[in-house]
Amino acid sequence: MAEAEYPNDLLYHPEHDWARIDSENPDVAVLGITWFAQDALGEVVFFEAPAPGTIIHKDEPYAEVESVKAVSDVVAPLSGEIVEVNEKLADGPDAINEDPYGEGWLVKVRMSDPSEREALLDADAYSATLGA
Amino acid sequence: MRRTPLYDCHVAAGAKLVDFAGWEMPVQYPDGVRAEHMAVRERCGIFDVSHMGEIETFGLQAEALLQRLLSNDVSKIPVGGAQYSVLCNEQGGVIDDLFTYRLEPDRYLTVTNASNHARDLEWFRSHAGDFEAELHDRIDDYAMLAVQGPLAREIVQAISDTPLPARMTAATRRLCGAQVLVCATGYSGEDGVELLVDPADAPALWDDLVHRGALPCGLAARDTLRLEACFHLYGNDLSLERNPIEAGLGWCCREDTDFIGAEAIGAARAALSSAAASVSADPVLSPAGLPAQRLVAFEIDGPGIARQGNPIVGGGTVTSGTLSPSLGVGIGMAYVPPEHAALGTVLEIDVRGKIRPATVMRKPLYRKDG
Description:
The complex is a heterodimer. Chain A is an alpha+beta fold.
């Protein structure tokens, strides 16, 4: 997507990650990187996530995304166990650029401490950190 | 930060600008690095490389001075010719890598890397005392546009008053009314030209070439293109710590011309050629006093992308690494111990804690005709 967009139904981490918590499955969060992050990286050419079962910790890097030019850590917005990895990204990491909130999701996590979400930002607060 | 005369063109085109060696340069345009890269491989791209510097050497002993400074045989450059060489210190460490054009019998123009220009100029001046030659800093007198790709010549030819110079030569032409030094050289692995032009004439020339089909390309694509072609990047693959023999640039070093560093480089050449046969007790040393290594090109065997600074198991370091847009795999160059430099050797690269196997490949990694 060409224009900056920060959907209202997501929670944001200041390190440019988002989390989507589904009301039907409230202990699992879908994680990804924001429009700002993918725009700063440029075309993503490689993403490799830890295997399902891996425990990740809020505010700590859990994976890497690479553009042609650089590699960047992906920071966990929430703690928990990875239950699913977006396998389609192995062959088509450009989905992270084209649809960062949809087809470009990275992993699904079973949250170990759902209260951590209280510390995340809403779309307006996150947009404000970008200073634009 | 310094800006080139084409700054407004880049902003208008929506370029992402970054600091490069103190210059505010376009790293990519909205189409992105892959589109830019493939445009150069398949059609034509245009790069602003006005941050590169130029040193003019003029006078009766201009050739003698350059012969002392530059590693290649400067006497072999015909008027209108171009030559690649390295500039070395006494230890054989590389100060810069350079293209020199012989514009007139006693007038040469040497193109420097932006990050090294001031140091090069100082080096030239500090060795010029004994020669009847004048040195002029021409960095502010030229903008430089690189037009590269299979259609590059055709596009530039269409606005030139007379036929363009042949590959590896340079000549003055009028392009759209502007006086331009057309150099049939490049850094992309494709045919093309580099245009040295008065800064005042550069924006109109840029706009015209873009209008005729040259796609603006940024430094990111310039890097992926040069790495596929295995052209060295100073600061990555060349440094004061490595001599040109280690870097695989022995072909542009002519020790019989007695350039500065010739003795050290001659010794390294002799020792490294015999070191291939025996891993002896007496290791050859680099200018930094470390065991000599060899710069190899590699392709990653599976997923992953090695980057500058990644160590190699058993010794060595990646100096350049990226994803090759043409080949679709991670590629790069690395200094490795001589016994790991043979084609087909499998290197284990430590990419941020993950071991990625890679194979030493023949240079260049990308060849124009497959």
